[in-house]
Structure formats: structure tokens, C-alpha cells
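Now read this:
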Amino acid sequence: MTNTQKTPETKPDLDGLPTNAELDALQAEIEAATKASDDTPVLSEIEQATQKIETLTTELAAIKDQALRAMAETENVKKRTEREVRAASIYAVERFAADMLSVSDNLGRALGTVDDKARGALGDNAKHLLEGIELTEKELMAVFARHGIKSVSGKGSKFDPNVHQAVAQIPSSETKGDVAELMQTGFTLGDRTLRAAMVAVSTGPAKS
């Protein structure tokens, strides 16, 4: 009778323990996993801390940038609001001021009819009345000034199409292109022209 060699048992024992083949396979998996783990570079604690600091630094820079942008936007909104409030305050009187210009014109015309010779011929009562008109005109100009209403420069000033309206060109001792005569006073309110001044522009000295 010939002795035959038995093959390794591949089935689990009756007590449920793994076979030798299964143990060998599990050992091989463990060794392969250990080798793969050994091949993967392991960061030291210092390197991990450095990476974390870099990440936090990047996040902090982004947060600071967002905060600066928000602060800048808030400041811009604040300045814009202040400008709008200031403009609203200045230009709120625009219509009323425009209506008051006719009062200024009438006072100016009334005073313009009385020259020095005529003034000397007036009686005391008439002189007092004239002085009252002059005071009224001065007070009106002071009120205008307090509300940002200013008269436009007249004779001898450089012609400015933004505040002057040329109605004639005349020979004058004034420099060519400058205002030779003021026919109606103009006024500005803040940066706006409330009413352009009506002027005659000089063409230079008359030729003989």
C-alpha cells in the first residue's frame, strides 16, 4: 500500500477557527499594508504645525481683506450720505431764492435811479427813505450769503459762460473778452448757477 501525501486543510476546523491558508493570506495582507504605510511620508509634528499655521494665516488674511473692504464701503456710504444731506440742505432754498431775486432787482433799480446829484436835492424824509432802501438791500444780500447765495462777478471780470450770459459786444477799456458792462446781476447757489448775469462783453478799445 502506497503512502499518499495529504494536502493542507482549506476548510475551517470544526471549532470555527481559520485554516492555515486563511491565516497565511491575512498575514500577507498585513505585511502589504505595513509596507504601503512605510512608503507614505509621515509628517512630523513641526511640519503639521507649520501647515496649520500657514492655513490659518491665509484664512486670517482673507478675513482682514473682507473687513477692510467692508470698512471702505461703509466709509464711502457715509461720505456719500453726508454729501447728499449737505446738498439737500443747500438746494432746498433754490426755488425760494430764485423768487427772491426779483426783490433784489427791484431794490437795485430803485437805488439806481438816484445819483449823487439827485440825492443832494432830496429832503430829509426822502433821504431817510432812501437810506432805508439801502439798508434793506444790504440785509437781503447778507441773508443770501448766509444761505450760500452769492452774486456773480460783473464788470472787469473774465467772461465765464457758466455764470455769464452775453447779450452784446461793445468796445470798452476792459480787456477783450472780459465783461464790459453788467446789465443784470447773476447769482449762484452752491455749485449751481441760480441765474446767469446778463453782460456786455468787451471787444477791446474802440479804434480811432
About this structure: Residues 149-208 form a domain with the Nucleotide Exchange Factor Grpe; Chain A, domain 2 fold (CATH 2.30.22.10). The first strand starts at residue 149 and ends at 151. The chain has a mean pLDDT of 83. The beta strands are 149-151, 164-170, 179-184, 187-189, 192-195, 197-202.
